[in-house]
């Protein structure tokens, strides 16, 4: 089964690899953001959904300015995450609910609060789109409410991030 392109991701103009992303390791801004999203589309079309989701995660964690032109065409990828986890696939996808639970609970370093709330926001989208995915019963955490996630995104995210996430969650 050939996957359909993700409507929330840019098209790939050339073959990319993880090396292309590594070249921008020092610059975590809008150029890397757009490249991660483009690479995610390529991985998705190559029928590698778990790796595509990881590329989207990397974009989500970029330190992108609210004025970045890339955000005009490709808002923070909450809708992308919801779309991806909702697609039927025979390829390995793992358990995205557990993935985001672990990310949210274990993030450290620079911008940890932003990354934590973005991971919880992605987790909430996955829970809504894939209620069949079970939580990690061995790594118990206090799961936040929708209101807590909105507050976290308002406090630590971009100015309109909570609204972008709320729309993706509702769609």
Task: Draw up the topology in text.
Elements: H1 18-22, H2 30-45, H3 49-60, H4 70-73, H5 78-86, H6 96-106, H7 112-129, H8 146-156, H9 161-170
Key phrases:
single chain, 56% helix, globular, 171 residues, mainly alpha
Structure description:
The radius of gyration is 15 Å and the shape is globular. It starts with 17 loop residues before the first helix and ends with a helix. It is 56% helix and 0% strand. The chain is mainly α. It has one domain (18-170). It has nine helices and no strands. The longest helix is centred in the C-terminal third of the chain and has 18 residues, at 112-129. α2 runs antiparallel to α3 (49-60) and α6 (96-106) runs antiparallel to α7.
> How many domain modules?
1
Average pLDDT figure: 90
Strand content: under 5%
Distance between the terminal alpha carbons, to the nearest Å? 26 Å
Helix content: 55-70%
Shape: globular
Order of helices and strands: HHHHHHHHH
Low-confidence residue ranges: none
For the biggest sheet, the summary is:
none
User: Structural class of the helices, strands and pairings?
Assistant: mainly alpha
Number of strands: 0
How many alpha or pi helices?
9
Query: For the CA atoms, what is the radius of gyration?
Result: 15 Å
Q: What's the quick description here?
A:
The protein is mainly α and about 170 residues long. It has nine helices and no strands.
